[in-house]
Write a structure and sequence with these properties.
The complex is a heterodimer of chains A (351) and B (512). Chain A has 351 residues and is mainly α. Chain A has helices spanning 2-15, 22-37, 41-48, 56-66, 68-87, 136-172, 174-189, 192-204, 208-217, 222-235, 239-246, 251-259, 264-288, 299-305, 315-342. In chain A, helix 1 (2-15) packs antiparallel against helix 2 (22-37) and helix 6 (136-172) crosses helix 13. The longest helix of chain A has 37 residues, at 136-172. Chain B is mainly alpha-helical. Chain B is globular. Classes of the chains: A mainly alpha (351), B mainly alpha (512). The A-B interface holds A 182, 185-195, 197-199, 201-202, 204-205, 276, 280, 283-284, 287-290, 300, 303, 307, 310-311, 314, 317, 321, 324-325, 328-329, 332-333, 336, 350-351 and B 15-16, 18-19, 22-23, 26-27, 29-31, 133, 138, 145-146, 148-154, 157-158, 161, 446-447, 449-451, 453-454, 457, 468-469, 472-473, 480, 483-484, 487-488, 491-492.
Chain lengths: 351, 512
Amino acid sequence: MSTDDGLRSESVSEETPLPVESERIEAQMHRLISADTDVLGVETASADIPVAARSSARTVMMRFFRHKAAMGGLIVLAFIVILVFSSVGIGPIPGWWHQDYRVPQPLYNGGHPTLQLWPFSLGKHPFGQDDIGRDYFALVMTGAQQSIIIAFLVGFVGSAIGTIIGAVAGYFRGWTESVLMRLTDVVITIPLVAIAAVVAKIAQDWGGVWALGLFIGLVTWTGLARIVRGEFLSLREKEFVDAARSIGVPSGRIIFRHILPNTVGVIIVSATLAMSAAILLESALSFLGFGVQPPNTSLGQLIESYRAAMGPRPWLFWWPGLFIVAIALAINFIGDGLRDAFDPRQNRQKA
Amino acid sequence: MTVFVTRRLIVSFFIVLASTALMYVLVAVSDNPLKDLLEYNGPGRADRIAARTRALHLDVPIPGRYVLWLQDVGRCVVPGGHDCTLGLDRSSRPVLPQLQTAIGSTLRLVVAATVLALLIGIVTGIVTALRQYSTFDYGITFVAFLCFSLPVFWVSTLLKQYIAIDLNNWLANPTMSYAALFAIALIAGVLWAVVIGGQWRTRWIVFGVAALATFTTLFVLLTTDWFTSPSIGVVGILVIGVVMAFLWAALFAGLRPRTRRVLWTSIAAAVLGTIAIVLAQPLMDGMNWLTFFLVALVLIGIGVATGLVGGGYVKRLAAQVGAVTGVTMTVLMAIDQMLAAYPFVYQQTGGRPIPTTGASTPNLDGNFWQTNTDVALHLVLPTLAIMLISFASYTRYTRASMLDVLNQDYVRTARAKGLNERTVLVRHSFRNALIPLATLVAFDFAGVLGGAVVTETVFGWSGMGLLFQTGLKNVDPNPVMAFFLVTAIATVVFNLLADIAYAYLDPRIRLS
């Protein structure tokens, strides 16, 4: 990203002082603007130089792939996502696990889990059965699927809103900033669990996990908005923004094509961490009874329903909890790896 | 300063006004408040609907209801105001008395958890910063990440199921096999060796000493039946007090001849404090919070006075360390008294001293120490659950900010001009590393206040969390708003305090 900015400001400083007739200026403007739209092309161009400097995206990727904990997190998360979505299928698409999570079956082996690690075998009910004989593997997989959908939705919606609000507030300053930042202050005053519980209760009428994820996303943008605003406040004073403004690039374009790519690091890191927080928030809400409602299921809702069964059937309690911890931990490690990778001061490679 | 505070207070007022409005509307539109009555077919249906409509002002549109609620709050703010109820809940009961009973237990929980998490978090954060990239650092980093990823209600239920029940069983019959003793001693040894680190030779020595000390302590405690009737006694207070005084002096003043006087005054403060505690014994049975604070003040005063009298040319430092020693003596006195009260509580709770539900044992009828021991035992599990999460963020934050400070030029200068490591770490680095933490703690406290909703539900506390939860379930805005008013004001006040603390600690920042 820094390469294309450098290139652009160079060409501007080189060409604007030339005293030429209006047609040439016009032609140069067109060239500049076309170079500007071609943001992605810059990277391929720099690859042609014999001793190519590493592009910042490549540096970040290399740093990330060397981060052992983050790679571990990535592998675990990929494994869980594939397992969860392939086993019970997505929506109408069937998966390889053929027991329905809604159908009670006669208890097999007292409902104990039949999963064997060595030699590996799933058995009839790998995670056991619940008290009315439903297959718990199918239940946990379905629940995890819903929780992951909610987490990604919350991370996505929250980050998008936070980015836009922070960007607009930081770029335009003045009363726009005052209004948006006071709005952020207002929402930040409300404890997250409280406001999320309230909007989740409203989302119940709209039905489904999609509404829930969307609504929770509507209240989790405040932290990122503040961060992005801070980044914008410093970036908007840079020369490349002045240059873009001086050749008449519209504000929306400056925000999204010139400044935003420079803040992508903090946004990605924050979005990742927001997802792990969303998994925990969703489970807490479902536990309090404001989140996912039966007959829908989620990891938090499973823990809540089988909390009383803790003594006689502890596995009903352990599996969803372990899935929550594994998913959240994996995402947290990925977020940490991304943060280290995006941090320009981080020269040393740490594990 | 005054201008800043006034301006912030005015802005905060409008922010709280706006956020209460937002919250009120959201709660009010979340569902139909008459839902259960509309489905109810028994006698008196119309009367009940009418009663609830009156209590919740359902005949007024939502913005009007919000204004009515503001009036109710206003009655509490105006001095000499009457009818301070914070509105009625849907059964026409005033909210204020419910809030008053709820707020105590919630604050107790949140304050205890925050303070403990802060202490442990700062200490481990600093140690991990000093031992960056060591085994201990990686271990704590992993633990912190694990804590970040734990659903608090899941952990709480696990704590209830395993820790509470097993610990209670063990406390009923506190014995240990030799194998268990050896295992605990080995684990303690490994822990200390990893924490202190250094050369392999040092590590082995630390391991040996720590393991042996743990083994001997546990063995003596078990054979003397300490766990059924624990106490530390006057001798214990004296010994622990003197050791702590030595440690404080070594930490804050160093043991070089220049500041040797601090060491002597601090130890003197511990000895004099012990004498004062012995003299105060007749007060202990009839103690209340007032006398407790008076005794604490006397103990701290003794520490300060010893420092001022015997401190010589380092009397300021000696007085400060003396005050810390005084606080230590107060804590030791409280622990001694509470341990003495333990057998009574044990018997009153039917041999299950670590409870899993509620905030205190009903009808306990004990004196100051017995009630407080009971409350403290009730706090053990929920505090542990909340602590785990706050602890993780405090540790990470302290570590990051300490590392940041340690890499600054002035720290290198301090080392270069020959200051010893203790001075560099305690006086130059630690104080500055704490500055950014002030903001985090202030912000976090309000967050924990809201997050306690979940913990309270698991442990069956009837605190503000219950008020919020049942209120929201029943679409009953006034109790929810009472909860919310407290958290919003706490957030605003703590953020203001954080800003003031920041300016006070960091002279580069001017409030204007």
